Amino acid sequence: MSQTGGFRGYVAVQGRGVIALPLSLRKKYKLDQAGSQVEITEREDGVIELRPTLPIPAKEAWFWDERWNTGEREVDEHVRKGEITVSETVDDFMAHLTAISKE
């Protein structure tokens, strides 16, 4: 761990310039998935920065999580079956939530 609390360590550079990131970092930044990319920036002070990049913005990655998408498919199925309730007002909506929470 570095002073900032993040990972600090060494990796070997292979003959063709290939490096292997530690598994903990690959999982943390979702770089363990096929097609993952890393942005490389060479700074003037000689530091090489690596930034994980995703095909979608990181702040929107939650939407593509399998658990979230399972929930989306469940909701779509309820809508398809007509298993929905439409509330005209916030009070009606809250009353409906109260009623179903008691069931």
Total number of beta strands: 2
Secondary structural class: alpha+beta
**Rg estimate, integer Å:** 23 Å
Number of domains as seen in the coordinates: 2
Detail the poorly predicted runs: none
Share of residues in helices = 25-40%
The total of helices stands at 3
Largest sheet: 2 strands, antiparallel
Distance between the termini: 49 Å
- Overall geometry: elongated
CATH topology of the largest domain: Pemi-like Protein 1, Chain: D
The portion of residues forming beta strands comes to 5-15%
Widest sheet: strand order?
1-2
Q: How does CATH name the architecture of the largest domain?
A: Ribbon
CATH top-level class of the largest domain: Mainly Beta
What's the average pLDDT? 88
- The helix/strand series, from N terminus to C terminus, equals HEEHH
Description:
By secondary structure, the protein is an alpha+beta fold. The chain has 2 domains: 1-56, Pemi-like Protein 1, Chain: D (Ribbon), CATH 2.10.260.10; 65-102, no CATH class. The protein is built from 3 helices and 2 strands; from the N terminus they run H-E-E-H-H. Strands 1-2 form a two-stranded antiparallel sheet. A hairpin with a 5-residue loop joins strand 1 and strand 2 (48-53). The chain is elongated, with a radius of gyration of 23 Å.
